[in-house]
Amino acid sequence: MAIKITLSALVKFPVKGELNDDKGNKQPVHFTLTCERRTAEEWKEIFKEGEKLSEGFAQITKDWGDVQDDQGKPVPYSKDALEQLFRIPGVAQLAYVAYVTESGVKAKN
């Protein structure tokens, strides 16, 4: 299939990782983000050196999925809830890598 010169304005992508529980067992975690697709040149304007990744994601994130509260109920997306999620160590970095990987072209296996 040929590549189109323009891309959709939004990109939805999974963020996956593992989190150790209180017994040291690795538990899989995942959620999705729907973000504005930005050009590589714009990334430097959004994800500024010295600023928290959550600040950049707050500018481009439009929705999310599979984020739950302590009772297992879905948490609606908001900038405050995003900040809370990104306080978990490693989540912001996983989201950034997923965004960079999934919002552009990658090699096909």
Fold and architecture overview:
- The chain is an alpha+beta fold.
- The chain is built from four helices and three strands, in the order ββααβαα.
- Strand 1 and strand 2 form a beta hairpin.
- The longest helix has 12 residues, at 91-102.
- The two termini are 15 Å apart.
- The mean pLDDT is 92.
Write a compact overview of the structure shown:
The chain has helices at 40-46, 53-60, 79-85, 91-102, and strands at residues 10-20, 26-36, 61-65.
Strand order of the largest sheet: 1-2-3
Q: Largest sheet at a glance?
A: 3 strands, antiparallel
Straight-line N-to-C gap: 15 Å
What is the element string, with H for helices and E for strands? EEHHEHH
How would you state the average pLDDT, rounded? 92
* Coarse morphology: globular
Write the layout of secondary structure elements.
Layout: E1 10-20, E2 26-36, H1 40-46, H2 53-60, E3 61-65, H3 79-85, H4 91-102
Antiparallel strand pairs: 1-2, 2-3
Highlighted features:
single chain; three-stranded antiparallel β-sheet; 25% strand; 109 residues; alpha+beta
